[in-house]
Amino acid sequence: MAQVSVAQLRPGEAFLFKNQPFVVLQIRSKHMGRGGAIYRIKMRNLKTGTVLNNAFRPTNKFELIETELRPVSFLYSDQQNAYFMNPRTFDQLSLSLKLIGNSAKFLKEGEIYKLEVVSGELTGLKLPKKIRRQVIEAPEAVAGNTATGATKWIIIEGGVKIETPLFIKTGSTIIINTEKGNYVSKG
Question: What's the topology of domain 68-126?
């Protein structure tokens, strides 16, 4: 693989850092005048799930690595792992909940997700940016608390609490941003 400058890295790309595979979560550059630029990268170790924040100079070079995304259907999870099935081959695969991270709370039985594979090893899970979930429990809006921007906490499928506008009711379907874990719109 080719060596690329830190300035050429983009979110979602995988690269080797200290012989470990990492994926770029976020990258920001700060130009220091005569001192040159500094690139701050928020990155996740694809083997351990550890998230690091590191600063690099434009002269730092990294080797890009290929990541493969495999479609899988979510089956169930236990205390340590989530279990998936390849819809074509019916092979069952498991992935540590540590590697899935905060996204694990949005997993729904039967939905299709994408497993990240680096060098034949399962390293992570990609959820769609937005998902639809049904509201299981939503308190009624109380008269008088309808000031601009008023919100309430509701519970969606899977037992996840989400902050929403007051008009959301039990039984409604809402759209949630999986990256931020927040309400987007009524679905």
Answer: OB fold (Dihydrolipoamide Acetyltransferase, E2P) (2.40.50)
Cα angle: 160, vertex 161, 163; to 5 degrees: 140
Fold classification of 3-65 (topology level): SH3 type barrels. (2.30.30)
Report percent pLDDT > 70 for the chain: 94
Torsion of CA 180, 181, 184, 187, to 10 degrees: 140
Selected from 3.90.79.10, 2.60.40.1120, 3.40.50.970, 2.40.50.140, the CATH number assigned to the domain covering 130-186 reads 2.40.50.140
The answer to whether 82 and 109 are in contact (CB under 8 A) is no
How confident is the prediction for the chain on average, in pLDDT?
A: 86
Burial class (CB in 10 A: 0-12, 13-18, 19+), 42: middle
pLDDT band at 7 (very low <50, low <70, confident <90, very high): confident
